User: What shape does this take?
Amino acid sequence: GAVVSQHPSRVICKSGTSVKIECRSLDFQATTMFWYRQFPKQSLMLMATSNEGSKATYEQGVEKDKFLINHASLTLSTLTVTSAHPEDSSFYICSARDPSSFADTQYFGPGTRLTVL
Amino acid sequence: GENVEQHPSTLSVQEGDSAVIKCTYSDSASNYFPWYKQELGKRPQLIIDIRSNVGEKKDQRIAVTLNKTAKHFSLHITETQPEDSAVYFCAATASGGSYIPTFGRGTSLIVHP
Assistant: This one.
């Protein structure tokens, strides 16, 4: 199946700083990528849909000024958590679908564990 | 929008037993139903999927059944092994649209040796 990478895998930062997480599709071009947040023992919560060359679409309740998404190329989407606070600590996962495939399968990145001190 | 309910939230079985996880969905436009397995701290991995034009699909010890009329689908794992222990998520997607899957809350499967 298609491969999606994510970097960094873990990050620890101080409260008030910003953190950038990268999501890359390695062997296909993704016009759309998705960003999820997952709390311990909970399901995947969709935060936003990242659209190449246009603004991201945010889910209700997700602050677009706090979670900045940029999808500047067909293989890279970034999520920047601005002015991070301890409550932003979570597991962030991106996913993408290979549009050249007839399948509807979403392929997930390995996730980024963010800890805000 | 789509609503996916998943049960049970926790399932504990003995090695060798079968495990069944059930999901229901609300949007009749949904036509693609993947199942993901997520081990602790790792990414969700697709283990099997089914489309609405098929009633059942099997892959070795794993099978999925779909009842479109009742809007429910189930994951069946036979001859469970300790390495099957993980959290399993079902999802429902409407093809041809945004392809955004709606996930169930997950089932924590524990297989005791």
